[in-house]
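ping. complex inputs:
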Amino acid sequence: MSTDGWDEAPAGSTRPSPSIKDVAALAGVSPGTVSNVLNRPEKVAGATRDRVESAIRELGFVRHGSASTLRAGHSRTIGLSVIDIGNPFFTDVAAGVEDLASERGYAVILGNSSGSRVKEERNLLVFAEQRVRGVLITPSDQDTLRLDRLRERGISVVLVDHPAERADQCAVAVNDVTGGAMAVEHLLAGGADRIAYVTGPAAMRQCQDRRRGAERALAAAGRDPGSLREVAMPAMTAAAGQQAAEKLLAQDVLPDALFCANDLLALGVLRGLMQAGVRVPDDVSLIGYDDIDFASASAVSLSSIRQPTYQLGRTATELLLDECDNPDTHAHQQIMFQPDLVVRESTR
Amino acid sequence: MSTDGWDEAPAGSTRPSPSIKDVAALAGVSPGTVSNVLNRPEKVAGATRDRVESAIRELGFVRHGSASTLRAGHSRTIGLSVIDIGNPFFTDVAAGVEDLASERGYAVILGNSSGSRVKEERNLLVFAEQRVRGVLITPSDQDTLRLDRLRERGISVVLVDHPAERADQCAVAVNDVTGGAMAVEHLLAGGADRIAYVTGPAAMRQCQDRRRGAERALAAAGRDPGSLREVAMPAMTAAAGQQAAEKLLAQDVLPDALFCANDLLALGVLRGLMQAGVRVPDDVSLIGYDDIDFASASAVSLSSIRQPTYQLGRTATELLLDECDNPDTHAHQQIMFQPDLVVRESTR
DNA sequence: ACACGAGATTGTTACGTTTTAATCGAGATC
DNA sequence: GATCTCGATTAAAACGTAACAATCTCGTGT
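pong. complex structure:
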């Protein structure tokens, strides 16, 4: 029998979480004051603040985020939708996002679209349901119309690794045309003659832009841009890269240089070529894109185009949170980083 | 001037999201019915359901997750706390989690503890504030007491890649002792004599267990388990691996076989050794752990211990959701997968 | 013609917080 | 001593949904 008026729950059972009211009762103040301690501590006198804070600790009170969101009209979470969480490029971006978000007290809801429009749509729906404060997204295709639907709901959107289409939105990207040009210039400088471009889904902007850069470099060197052979794969993974290598080997004449739209493809291609006895770079030069960590550790270390990945995620988050917290003074920005060429063993 | 009584918002401005009431008004039913359509469609007559559903579409209504959570007492989100999102092992786990969660209509909040107890604690606080339905966590150390604090709040917890300490909790893990033994048995079979263990923080259970397995294998082969040299690094990344290689090279006598506690360390060690002109596997045998995708693409393809990673995440989520959705019939399970040895070029 | 019951729908209340306006108290000013 | 001011605190009203009991509507059996 309980002697102190508390309902003593059996050990291991769950006691309902204490609410702001319980804290208020224990501290001898009103619920409003507790809310003030939580949200505007400077508005409450030192002594009461201390009393409330120790009550919070004693009860193990944790603010109910949903109630807060409901009343305040906005949450402390942001949504992050990426194309492939298995790609270290996006992992690095996510790390940048997560670090800054968590510094600012925001939670990150992760969505992986796997390049599928349907899954992306589903993720955005979840974000909308959660009433996230804002969304960071690397769209899986060019159709960014649905993002305006989010904006109409008052959810800020920042494009990641995708340039803005209009001036009224924030975007953070890396110049893929320049990057593609850098890659092919480098191949040409190594004496490449027949260059092929191993790429992913045609709908992906990154693939298109890198291709345009490649063609531009060809033209600048006095070659026919139309001479760029293309091997397009449905995914941009190492497995797809290996299949691409098989495709290439099945053709009558092998290119003497390959530009891969990302490092995963390049690593897969490399594996496929080596298994077939093709020497890299002696028989074929190979360059990737992203400069993921593993590019330097591969069988033949991979030349690549480096992007400021972590920075990309961090900067995008910075813009998003600024847009959320200072909606009136916020100026939309389109930030374009420049990529770097990293030369290793896989290119002549 | 508006002629239809609607307040016509200026183009591009944000209209407040329609609520369940607006839908009800348009469909000519009560809010309760709309709620029923949303949550128990079988309870409402076909004709009304259709009317409500088309009203939902017309208004672009999206359920307010926070209000729903507040009222229902539980949310449709789960928290996932991992040690290193930069490690493909955890990325694969996360992919498994995300896939199943999203199939079941759950959102995943991602937290990266970076092996830091403080960050882990912060993530758990965020999870608690969001009133997540459950938590999947790979704890960064052995002290799982704080997880009981979550359980007291009614938040289910499933341990991932960590065996259960008690029978009243779910856990999904892979037998690391067996894995460690497999690795060292393989090294011994290749004629290894002086074996070193390159590992991460001592507090990590994975590192301890793999070490125990290694020692067991030594003992079983009639060797002195104490002869296992150890190089412990503060992180389990490729960069740390490279530093480990430098440490090893600085010693007077180089081991003839290395067992690395994960593939990232192994890849770093490999890079470090190769830069110093040490041949793998001729001078030194090298085996990693996890069999991440990149293990097979490295300079010398890496022998490793394979774990059912994606499955690990999926199974853990399965258990968690079962515990959430069927709290009374749910039976706690401790599932232990077995690892596999994958032999490649890096070992004799 | 009537009561009955099953199915469909509704009204109401509560969830935990934030926010606004109102109240209180203690000095300072006339 | 009455009035005013200002800071600190409080009371009360939302926010959008889910759940439950209550009500309504018919068709059915007597």
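Residues 19-21, 31-32, 34-36, 38-39, 63-64, 66-73 of chain A lie near DNA strand C (CB under 10 Å from a C1').
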